[in-house]
Amino acid sequence: MKHRIALDKILNRMKWEKRLAPFAKCLSAAAFLSLGYLTLAHAAPLQIAIEFDPAKTETNSQRGVVAFQAALKKFSQPVNVIVNSRLREITRGALAGELDVLWVPSSIAATAVADKRYEVLGYDGHMAAMALLVKPEIKTFGALAGKRLYLPQEDSPASLVGTALLSDNHLPLTTFGSVFTTGSYEVSAFAVEQGLADVAALPQDIAQQWIAEHPGKGRILETSKPIPGQTLVVKKSLDASTKSELASWFAKNVAGVPELLPVTPAVWHYVTGLTHYTPDSEPGVKSITAQEVESMAKRGVVIVDVRSHEEYATKHIPGARLVPYIESSPRVVGANLASDIFDLTALNGTKDIILYCNGAECWKSFKAAAIANASKKFISVSWFRGGLPEWERAGFPVSH
Questions:
Q1: Which of 112, 120, 327, 329 is the most exposed place for a label (fewest CB within 10 A)?
Q2: Radius of gyration over alpha carbons of the chain, in Å?
């Protein structure tokens, strides 16, 4: 517990001093961010999401926001620019199909493209390997069982790659004594140095620099293949001229390069394999398909949509009842869900339920099913893992 409290203090300090301080230097950027988006007065603007790898938040986010402000008037179409410091929210927006354009780390791009509604137009030309930084006495992966793991932002490239490296070495997250999933790369190394974590994921160059500055305090246990940096993803439904303009605009005004580079198939295959999916099943809960959802709904089983009000209003399975799941716990099997909010009283009197959200990458319905099953309030709890994406692929209608 004392480690948890100490780490919370560090994270709080870093949050204000490291992540927000750069924006205070640019009042126009700070005002822009306080709104969360900038709207030009036209109908149906492009929804453009921008977020950067936490390792480069201080420099890239400020530069990116200023670049957007300076160049927006030159863009031929009206846009809403959405800047969100939580990668999880950008991921959610992509899975829900709310975003037209994403300028994000390749880890988020991979999640969006898996939905089949999006495609990659290119990346900024930067490749970076990720590493697992461990305490000096840890020599093998086997020695990590039961230890403390630090993952900076669950959707950050280092966290996804680090999780994959551990899994490849037969260490799923459930084998660790504790898992911290918040904060920045600076805190990752600091946590190892101060004995608050035994292993942390972060970019290789940052790990190497830290080791050089702190000899004898840590070592790199494993390094990944390099993955692309900032990646441009767009909806396939956009017309060719818009895609071309977007690629050119991001290259010159944000990435600062003549043109975006294509991601090779081999590299993209590696990146897409890092997506942090929910398990295929959950103990005590029946996993079902879209066809089974339709059949069960006709028999009176209640379909429960655990997404947000905004997502539900955009589209949902006909007849589904909205009971939002407010998620703050880590997206790992066995996570402590006490800090999450899921109002089961909204389902009083209901005996059989089906829970769904935005597909296999969405953990809300997985967690909601666990809570519902543990409550013993229902005769049966079913989990529609494929969620709304599978429902639509199966050709079933949606309500708005």
A1: 329
A2: 22
> Tokens 């905004």 correspond to what residue?
310
Q: Of these residues, 285, 357, 370, 388, which one is catalytic?
A: 357
The pLDDT assigned to 171 comes to: 85
Do 121 and 242 touch, CB atoms closer than 8 A? no
CA dihedral sign of residues 313, 317, 319, 321: negative
Strand partners, 214: none
Token pair 């504790």: residue: 178
Separation of alpha carbons 33 and 30, rounded Å: 5
With CA atoms as reference, report the closest residue to 367 among 376, 355, 358: 355
Q: How many CB atoms lie within 10 A of CB 261?
A: 15
How confident is the model over 187-201, as pLDDT tens digits? 888 999 998 999 999
Q: What is the DSSP letter of 261?
A: B
- Look up 357 and say whether it is catalytic: yes
Phi, psi of 90 (to 5 degrees): -65, -40
Mean pLDDT of the chain: 82
Question: What is the layout of strands, in order, in the sheet containing 380-384?
Answer: 286-287, 380-384, 352-356, 302-305, 321-322
How many other CB atoms are found less than 10 A from the CB of residue 75?
16
Instruction: State how far Cα 312 lies from the chain centre.
Output: 20
69 pLDDT more than 60: no
Give the tens place of pLDDT for each residue, 4-48: 434 444 444 444 334 433 333 332 333 233 333 333 333 478 888
Torsion of the alpha carbons at 364, 368, 371 and 373, rounded to the nearest 10: -140
Comparison of pLDDT for 169 and 121, the residue scoring more: 121
Of 192, 203, 133, the residue nearest 161 (C-alpha)? 203
- What's the rounded Cα separation, in Å, for the pair 326 and 333? 17
Query: On the CB side of 342, how many CA atoms lie within 13 Å of its CA?
Result: 27
- The angle formed by the CA atoms of residues 201, 203 and 206, to the nearest 5 degrees, is 110
d(CA 157, CA 162): 8
Alpha-carbon span 360 to 161, nearest angstrom: 18
Q: What letter does residue 15 receive in the DSSP assignment?
A: I
Q: What is the reported pTM?
A: 0.67
